[in-house]
Design brief:
This protein is of the alpha+beta class. Helices cover about 35% and strands about 25% of the residues. It contains four helices and six strands, in the order ββαβαβαββα. The strands form two sheets. The protein has a four-stranded mixed beta sheet with strand order 4-3-5-6, covered by helices on one side. The protein is elongated, with a radius of gyration of 21 Å.
């Protein structure tokens, strides 16, 4: 067949169909190999934090990380951890390419999460 169709194990497909199938296969494989990230426990007293707190993963020398922690700490209890190799690999697999990675909790449930210096998100938790 010379009409651009390619023979594969399940029949003939076009180049576009083959590309879509390959992409879906990569995504399915990625989903099967997802791990969960072990988020460290909160180190403060929840009653003092009114049940709301943040856990921030940082990297050394990251100004955006320092700014996020500094500003969030004005209004919410913050625990921060330097991301280790396992956490960084997990973030990469999840498509996160920028630090810090922030998780906002409300009584042990993740209420919000983001990465990078997100002034809009920080304002949600620091303004009235």
């Amino acid at each position: 067949m010379s009409n651009g169709m390619k023979r594969v194990g399940y029949g003939y497909v076009s180049h576009t169909e083959q590309a879509i199938i390959e992409q879906l296969s990569r995504e399915e494989k990625h989903m099967r190999h997802k791990e969960t990230l072990e988020i460290p426990p909160f180190n403060g007293k929840l009653d003092e934090a009114n049940g709301r707190y943040a856990i921030v993963f940082t990297k050394p020398g990251c100004n955006k990380c320092r700014q996020t922690i500094r500003i969030l700490s004005r209004s919410i209890m913050v625990n921060h951890y330097q991301a280790d190799k396992t956490a960084i690999e997990y973030f990469k697999r999840m498509g996160i390419r920028s630090m810090p990675v922030v998780f906002i909790f409300d009584h042990y449930s993740v209420k919000d999460e983001w990465c990078d210096l997100r002034v809009d998100k920080i304002k949600q938790y620091t303004e009235g």
